[in-house]
Task: structure prediction
Amino acid sequence: MSLPQKPAPRVFSGMQPTGNLHLGNYLGAMVRWVEMQKSHECIYCVVDMHAITVWQDPKELRDQIRSVTAAYIASGLDPKRSILFNQSQVPEHAELAWVCNCVARLGWLNRMTQFKEKAGKDRENASVGLYAYPTLMAADILAYRATHVPVGEDQKQHLELARDIAQKFNNDFAGPIRDAGFDDGTFFPLPEPVIMGPATRVMSLRDGTKKMSKSDASELSRINMTDDADSIAKKIQKAKTDPLPLPGDAAELEKRPEADNLVGIFAALSNKTKAEVVAQFGGQQFSAFKKALVELAVSRIGPVNAEMTRLLADPAEIDRILADGAKRARAIAGPIMDKVKDIVGFLRS
Ligand code: ATP
Ligand code: MG
Result:
């Protein structure tokens, strides 16, 4: 199969099955994924190989892969229109990751803040996979010659690294790339980050300076898309705030991270600006605002949650959707990986 000289617009993104999807994943990435599906060819992956960079119980991992897939579909991704699959079913990700490892420089990886945060103080004991996470992420994107990657703010640095890897590959192999039939010596497009969800950085409910994460030890730090109305109410009521009433001016939120986060979540869920939210609630105590936020969050998350429960009642159907997606993904990634092998000088039959 011959590949186009210049790849057409193609979207790739993924989430880790390290836990249930939370409001940060939903507002920072998922809403945009659903939007982009209307106008672009989209490939959405459940990145199970990234998940095992930190310990995962094998049985729970299987359940989480299905649960994240159900969350994708319940949030509005259409498995017929877009390609939905789990990463480990498409071996080209791992194959290309090795090539990316050999293109990326140690100095580049040493600058990655996510590794520093996740490895913490016990860095010597972190897995090699956690360190090499960004090169696998570059391979995920480049295996499809994807052009657009919708993610939350926290993934910006990894995307810049993916662009650096694509650029260095194109430079290092410019001659062989031309020999392989790509006349301008460019094989990989430089993937564009699309960081523009309704809230690109949702913070923890327990600490307004830390992002909301699936892997945070505290359940109270995040609202999951699987939480029922009671849990949502409990988590919002317990969310950290400061003693002052809500400000009437959005500029004052800058010095109050917890208030800023809750107002940001309210704004994102109701398609309003933060200024509109503080105009409505300014001067009021947090108790009244939190009550309104609970109602709003339940009204948005409830239907997604109900649809996830319905889908998860038939795991065989989810497995079928993932297998079908993997087949379609391989049909794209296979010929691209073949060209990469030709370009770097591997023999293949
Ligand atoms: P983990 O703690 O295991 O890294 P995570 O919550 O960071 O999990 P990922 O699977 O790493 O979730 O990321 C999936 C997508 O969600 C990415 O596009 C990421 O940028 C986005 N995302 C993650 N957390 C947030 C957040 N707090 N606010 C906005 N977007 C987020
Ligand atoms: Mg993450």
Q: What stands out?
A: Residues 15-16, 18, 24-25, 28-29, 151-152, 154-155, 200-202, 211-215 surround adenosine-5'-triphosphate (ligand 1) (CB under 6 Å). The chain is about 55% helix and 5% strand. The two ends are 15 Å apart (CA to CA).
